[in-house]
């Protein structure tokens, strides 16, 4: 289908980082290709849910806002979820957690973060972008996916298309201001195979100290600043890295690995954040203080399944 027969958004001004994302790229880690996908997968799914889309349909992940401006070229209904980036339709403020009509000629803009870091903009049926290795998600480090197929972020003059269809508009079953990934600063962690090799003092600090989000943070990983942790392991054979893995490099400052992480790593790990905690961390601005809370694998699964049931 040609662009002329599709609904379109034109990028009038690019922000610091806006990417096409979907549910992620799976089944290819043996090739060294990471999963990618929406960093806050919960807010991403709610954005699609608001329009009646498939929950993993491609949408736009907008980080920080930073002056991103999109011009609407055809009438449509869009949805916004996740962080409050001071979004506006022309001069009208838009609250996250809502679906809203747009008309040709209107401008959708994003400014400075008010609450959270990442917002998700969904379109009816999902964005129509190239499928690369089973996913539309952009992973800049690997130069895969996204609106051009090369992993790049949006830039001025780009156009985003989707196949026009009627949105099935819904309202969130909770107050958007109490969004699950924006509230709270406690991050549940399932202890891993190397946790017993950390010193007793290090384990005490890991789960009792306050950790501050470093400015060294991206879709690959987020460094936590706090007490120096020590592990007795001298060396390790590299092994597979799951979403939320908490690695501790020689400087003793944990790094939580996110969607665009490497597929293997050789640093000892405290364990891994639960999927919900990983989504919550993805909404944390630099400087925010968080804490780690040990939890069981069984409870992590229960919490994850409860979250999935909410989308029905």
UniProtKB/TrEMBL annotation:
InterPro entries: CT_A_B, Cyclophilin-like_dom_sf, PxpC
Nucleotide-binding among keywords: yes
Domain Carboxyltransferase: 30-311
Gene3D superfamilies referenced in this protein's UniProt entry, alphabetically: Cyclophilin-like
Entry keyword set: ATP-binding, Hydrolase, Nucleotide-binding
Sequence segments annotated as region (Disordered): 138-159
Pfam families on file: CT_A_B
Name used for this protein in its record: Biotin-dependent carboxyltransferase
């Amino acid at each position: 289908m040609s662009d002329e027969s599709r609904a379109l958004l034109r990028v009038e001004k690019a922000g610091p980082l806006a990417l096409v994302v979907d549910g992620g790229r799976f089944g290819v880690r043996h090739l060294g290709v990471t999963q990618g996908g929406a960093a806050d997968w919960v807010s991403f799914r709610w954005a699609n849910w608001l329009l009646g889309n498939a929950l993993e349909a491609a949408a736009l992940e907008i980080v920080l806002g930073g002056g991103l401006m999109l011009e609407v070229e055809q009438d449509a209904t869009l949805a916004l979820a996740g962080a409050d980036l001071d979004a506006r339709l022309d001069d009208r403020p838009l609250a996250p957690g809502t679906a809203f009509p747009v008309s040709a000629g209107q401008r959708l803009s994003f400014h400075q973060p008010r609450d959270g870091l990442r917002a998700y903009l969904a379109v009816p049926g999902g964005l129509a972008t190239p499928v690369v290795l089973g996913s539309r998600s952009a992973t800049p480090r690997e130069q895969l996916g996204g609106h051009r197929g090369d992993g790049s972020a949006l830039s001025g003059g780009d156009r985003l298309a989707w196949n026009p269809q009627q949105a099935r508009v819904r309202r969130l079953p909770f107050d958007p201001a109490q969004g699950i990934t924006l509230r709270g600063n406690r991050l549940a962690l399932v202890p891993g195979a190397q946790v017993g090799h950390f010193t007793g003092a290090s384990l005490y600090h890991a789960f009792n100290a306050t950790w501050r989000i470093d400015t060294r943070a991206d879709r690959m990983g987020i460094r936590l600043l706090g007490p120096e942790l020590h592990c007795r392991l001298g060396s390790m054979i590299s092994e597979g890295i799951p979403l939320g893995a908490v690695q501790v490099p020689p400087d003793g400052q944990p790094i939580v690995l996110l969607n665009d992480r490497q597929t293997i790593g050789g640093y000892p790990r405290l364990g891994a954040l639960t999927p919900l905690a990983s989504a919550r961390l993805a909404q944390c601005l630099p400087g925010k203080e968080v804490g780690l809370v040990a939890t069981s694998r069984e409870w992590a699964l229960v919490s994850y399944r409860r979250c999935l049931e909410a989308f029905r």
